[in-house]
Amino acid sequence: MRDQILVLDTLQRIDMELSQLEKDLREYPEKISAYESEIELSRKKLEASRVMKQEILLSKSGIELEIAQNEDLIKKADQKLFEIKTHKEYEALQKQIADTKRKNSELEDKLLEQMVKLEGVESQIAKEEEELASKENEYTGKIAGYKEKIQELKILYPPKKDEKVNIASGLTPDILSLYERVKKRNGFVLALVKNEVCMGCYMHIPAQLFNEVLTLSRLIQCPSCQKFLYCEEELKSEAKTG
Ligand SMILES: [Zn+2]
Predict the structure, then answer these.
(1) Claim to verify: residue 183 and residue 153 sit in the same structural domain
(2) DSSP assignment, residue 221?
(3) Looking at 106, 129, 158, which one is the last position of a domain?
């Protein structure tokens, strides 16, 4: 029965390696997409800020144009003042000049507002460019690393799977199905017995059963946790013989 315990032990080890491989193969692509979407998010934020900058520039040049046109109007009206004959016309034109000057002063306030906004968005863009560059710098390497690992795991996986089939063929079908059942329930299938106690669940093993474990007359399962029981000497002695 020691052979069977050793086969179970090997099978368990291969199964653990397989499930680790499966876990990595499942998780690594998720990590890659998480890094990729982080980069994409930064890129979109930067893009939005650049669009905002264009809008501010557009509104700023609109205001500047309006101010220039008003200044032109004021200049022309100032010249016209000298040609005016009646007092009434003179007053009307002076009022028009004053109104245009007031409008321009309001426009200049607006222009200042846009310039402050522009300064803000420009420093935001600089910050976001730096953030994007550092994310690209950091994550591109990580993404490449994970892609490389995935390729390696894909190569390792099939032979490991074959190894499992090969090892499992050393067990009788009923023990194999018992193994799968215990594994499903407990994760681990083997439990060491020390001083008549199962190290898998810390329950006391009846003396008679413990003797059977010692004598290896048959494969014994723990009455409590169902794990296959073995004594330390069993795996050790095999290790010595190879
Ligand atoms: Zn147990």
Answers:
(1) no
(2) B
(3) 158
* Distance of CA 237 from the midpoint of ligand 1 (Å): 23
DSSP secondary structure code for residue 190 in this structure: E
Q: How far is the centre of ligand 1, averaged over its atoms, from the C-alpha of 241 (Å)?
A: 28
Per-residue pLDDT tens digits for 177-230: 999 999 998 888 999 999 899 999 999 999 999 999 988 888 999 999 999 999
Q: What is the DSSP string of 12-28?
A: HHHHHHHHHHHHHHHHH
Token couple for 240:
């010595």
189 and 143 share a domain?
A: no
pLDDT digits (tens, 9 = 90+) for 136-176: 999 999 999 999 999 999 999 999 999 999 999 999 999 99
**223 Cα: distance to centroid of ligand 1 (angstroms):** 7
pLDDT of residue 235: 59
Compute, in angstroms, the gap from residue 17 CA to the centroid of ligand 1. 23
Q: What pLDDT digit, counting tens, does each position of 33-44 carry?
A: 999 999 999 999
Give me the long-range contacts of 74-79 (CB less than 8 A, separation at least 24): 74/100, 74/101, 74/104
Asked if residue 128 and residue 41 are part of one domain, the reply reads yes
Domain harbouring 141, CATH code: 1.10.287.1490
Total of domains in the chain: 2
How is the chain split among helix, strand and coil, in percent rounded to 5?
Answer: 80, 5, 15
Host domain of residue 80: 21-158
Determine, yes or no, domain membership for 167: no
The pLDDT of residue 240 is 42
